[in-house]
Specification:
By secondary structure, this protein is α/β, with parallel strands linked by helices. The chain is built from 12 helices and 8 strands. The protein has 2 domains: 159 residues, Rossmann fold, CATH 3.40.50; 94 residues, ProC C-terminal domain-like (ProC C-terminal domain-like fold, Orthogonal Bundle), CATH 1.10.3730.10. It is 55% helix and 13% strand. Strand 5, helix 5 and strand 6 form a beta-alpha-beta unit. Helix 4 runs parallel beside helix 5, helix 7 packs across helix 12 and helix 8 crosses helix 9.
């Protein structure tokens, strides 16, 4: 039995991914705050919606998907019902495995996960780290749950805040870039819909090319950049406006915010 505690957007995306991967709806429990939300999940997916304590008592694998600021209260609520033979997966930004372990009060195996919103389309980037009591079998089980909805990478927990900034928040950076490029197309006289189609397909194509070619992004970028051409003129403007430095600073700021969330 798997329980998803806090079935919001990310929790629902994981829920739907598990069902697409072949899990039985009867083997999944979901918890939510509002009755109307519970009804919507039951109607859409056929899963049972229960209280947090009921889920903690029944499930062998407990996925904590609440917001970081709600995690302490949730752990206090379920701690009396989580024995040491459960696997607890925490998917909240900035919440460390030690934070969860200390509040549960038993030597429960905890795996920390950071995923991202493309999980809705089975294209997530999920990074996982073992807590103090998690063994290989727990990491493997977590990977098995996440592989149907994207790529999974194991990293040391010390790198989780950086992963949150890079891949957890990463989709937002691309959406921001798309928004800016579409606005540029409109400025140049393109209809919005046409500009969006061109930019979206260009980014999808470039991402697939980067993933499947095995080439370094510098090599791929240089292949588009002809001497004295249009691309180098654009890149010169990006450099003049310190866009690269802005990305470095932005991702560093996201990392710092992840650390702040962890410290409360």
């Amino acid at each position: 039995m798997i329980a998803i505690l806090g079935t919001g957007k990310m929790g629902e995306a994981l829920l739907s991914g598990l069902l697409r991967a072949g899990f039985d709806p009867g083997d999944i429990l979901a918890t939510v705050r509002r009755p109307e939300r519970a009804q919507a999940l039951r109607e859409a997916y056929g899963v049972r919606t229960v209280t947090n304590t009921e889920a903690a008592k029944a499930a062998e694998t407990i996925i904590l998907a609440v917001k970081p600021q709600d995690m302490a209260a949730l752990l206090a609520e379920i701690a009396p019902y989580v024995p040491a033979d459960r696997l607890v997966i925490t998917a909240a930004a900035g919440i460390t495995s030690a934070f969860v372990e200390q509040r549960l009060g038993v030597e429960v195996p905890v795996v920390r996960v950071m995923s991202n919103t493309p999980i809705r389309f089975d294209e997530a980037m999920s990074v996982i780290s073992a807590g103090a009591h998690a063994r290989e079998e727990h990491l493997q089980h977590t990977e098995d749950l996440l592989k149907p909805v994207g790529k999974v990478l194991r990293i040391p927990e010390s790198q989780q805040d950086a992963a949150t900034a890079l891949s957890g928040s990463g989709p937002a950076y691309f959406f921001y870039l798309v928004e800016a490029m579409v606005d540029a197309g409109i400025l140049l006289g393109m209809p919005r819909a046409a500009a969006l189609d061109m930019v979206t397909q260009s980014i999808v194509g470039a991402a697939v090319m980067l993933r499947d070619s095995g080439e370094h992004p510098v090599i791929l970028r240089e292949a588009v950049t002809s001497p004295g051409g249009t691309t180098i003129a654009a890149i010169a403007e990006l450099e003049r406006h310190s866009v690269r430095a802005a990305f470095l600073a932005a991702i560093e700021a996201a990392r710092d915010r992840s650390r702040e969330l962890a410290s409360g």
